[in-house]
Design a protein that fits this description.
Helices cover 44% and strands 24% of the residues. With 157 residues, the chain is of the alpha/beta class. The chain has a single domain, classed as Nucleotidyltransferase, domain 5. It is globular and about 40 Å long. The two termini are 22 Å apart.
């Protein structure tokens, strides 16, 4: 199941559990994880993209090792909320994650990289260190936004 609805995603995950966050770029995939109670998201690593089969194998191993129950994928919308060629590419990537057999939430990530980049500059992080960490931190930013929204959903009736 792929959805842009936090409510549908939460209903598919009624028992909670760890979630993974992905910031899918053309050359890298930022990877993040949150605790089973959906309180805190943190960066894990940046995956250098190669062929999709290898990328999927890396994600499959991570999902199994960490007992991931759902994935939040950052969706790079245009500033007006419309799709772009990059958005279409990320939607296709999400569709290709079907072999993982996990619910996927597409989450608006328009400002994630900029927010993370600004925070690192404010913290006086070197340019090299920023380049090394920005993708996984952006994935954590995306995932934190999604779990914050999930926490604010009304209880099921």
């Amino acid at each position: 199941m792929i959805t842009a609805s936090p409510t549908e995603f939460a209903m598919a995950l009624a028992d909670g559990g760890k979630l993974a966050g992905l910031d899918v770029g053309t050359k890298t995939i930022g990877l993040a994880i949150c605790d089973p109670g959906w309180h805190f998201a943190g960066p894990v690593k940046t995956i250098i993209r190669t062929k999709f089969t290898r990328d999927l194998a890396v994600l499959r191993a991570f999902v199994a090792r960490e007992s991931i129950v759902g994935i939040v994928v950052g969706l790079p919308l245009n500033m007006d909320g419309s799709d772009s060629p990059r958005t279409q590419s990320v939607r296709a990537f999400a569709t290709n994650l079907a072999p993982l057999e996990l619910p996927l939430l597409l989450w608006d990530e328009r400002w994630s990289t900029q927010a993370v980049e600004r925070a690192m500059i404010d913290a006086d992080v070197s340019r090299a260190r920023r380049a090394e960490k920005v993708d996984s931190l952006a994935a954590a930013h995306i995932l934190q936004g999604a779990i914050d929204a999930l926490a604010n959903l009304p209880p099921p009736q």
